[in-house]
Every structure is written in C-alpha cells, then in structure tokens.
Amino acid sequence: MDTNTYLDTFENKLYEELVKLCGSYIVIDGLMPSSQDIEEHWKELAPEYLHDAIPQISDYPTVSIAWAGYLGIAVANDWDSNWELLRNRPYKEFYGVQGFDDMDENIVYNILGLAPSSKEAADIEAMMRRLAQQALTLLRHENIEPQSPSAFYAYTRVVNVMYRIGASLELMRLGYICQKIDLPVC
Q1: Residue 82: CB atoms within 10 Å
Q2: Residue 35 and residue 115: Cα distance in Å, rounded?
Q3: pTM beyond 0.70, yes or no
Q4: How many CB atoms lie within 10 A of CB 163?
Q5: Nearest to 62 by CA among 162, 157, 151, 145
Q6: Is 165 in contact with 15 (CB distance < 8 Å)?
Q7: Cα–Cα distance measured from residue 161 to residue 85, given in angstroms and rounded to the nearest whole number
Q8: Can you give the pLDDT at residue 184?
Q9: CA of 68: how far to CAs of 77, 163, 178, 181, in Å?
C-alpha cells in the first residue's frame, strides 16, 4: 500500500472512531454536519497551527491535537455568525492571553461567549479532551517511527480530523443537522 492510501485509510478510520466517540456524548442523528467553507478554511489556518502545535507534541501531545478541534469550533461559530467578515480573522486572534497555550479558553469563553463555570463549557472541554486522547491512542497504535516524515504526515491527518469534528460539533450545537436524503433517479 502506498503512503497516501495508507494515510487516507488511517484518516477515515480515525474519523469514524471519533464520530462514534462523539455519539457517546451527544445524540447524533444522521451524519455530522459540515461546510465546505469551513473545511477549505483549514488549508489557510493549518500552516500556522502546525507551527504552534508541533513543538508541543512531546510535552503536551493531547493539547497539540485538541486545540485543532477548538479551532474548528471557532471557525464554525464564525461561519454561522458573520462569515463574510470573520473568514479573514487572523489566526492569532484565536489565541488567548497566553498565546497558543490558552487558545481553548479564549475560544470557549470569548468567541463562543460561554461562562467559564457553565456546564456547556465543561462539556465541551471534557469531550475535546476525550477525543484528543482517543486520537492520540489511535495514532500511537499505528507504530509509526517518531519524528519521521510518516509521523508528521499522520499527525497532520489527526489534526485535520480534529478540526473537522470540532467544526461539526459546533454546527450541531448551533442547531444545524445533516440528513441523508434519497433523491429519485431520473
């Protein structure tokens, strides 16, 4: 199996596993909602995100994965709020007071507007932590040589999935649903 096929298979398996895990936290009817705008925006944010996250892998591997999910949450919220204006929000505006280190809190408290002591904020934190832990476990089970090109490419797939799932979860929180519809064949 060539590298791209392997990575595609790994990414699809990871996505399916994390969606299943989401189902243990919330009721998922049908498919996870998504938006091409949001998914395409990752291409713009990913280089800066990876620049921040990769140095965190050895000491804070779960954080380096989870923050991608929080970034997806923020972008989905921006998409729902005022995409024409917020699609150009600079990456650094997602930072908290301590920069990358408290990006999660800035997104939950300031961008989503949730109170730090709210159940909703606590639920988001618990779910994102658990998703990141599961993603890290699945990545480690791949037995990829650390600090290798393969490890880098697999990691980029992991954070891509976390971003997409974070965005889907926020879209669901905002009331969007995605249902499969059967169209008649002409």
Answers
A1: 9
A2: 27
A3: yes
A4: 26
A5: 162
A6: yes
A7: 25
A8: 72
A9: 14, 5, 22, 30
Query: What is the mean pLDDT, run by run of 10 residues, along the chain of 186 residues?
Result: 89 94 73 88 97 95 97 97 93 95 97 96 95 96 90 96 95 82 67
Long-range residue pairs from 152-159, CB within 8 A, at least 24 positions apart, any chain? 152/54, 153/3, 153/7, 154/7, 154/10, 155/54, 155/57, 156/46, 156/50, 157/7, 157/10, 157/11, 157/14, 158/14, 158/65, 158/68, 159/46, 159/49, 159/50, 159/53, 159/64, 159/65, 159/68
The tokens for 177 are 């649903």
> For residue 182, what are its two tokens?
């059967």
Closest C-alpha to 158, from 12, 2, 1: 12
Quote the CA–CA distance of 76 and 20 in Å, as a whole number. Answer: 21
Amino acid at 139: L
Structure tokens at 100: 């990358």
Whole-number Å distance between alpha carbons of 44 and 77:
17
Residue corresponding to tokens 């007071």: 97
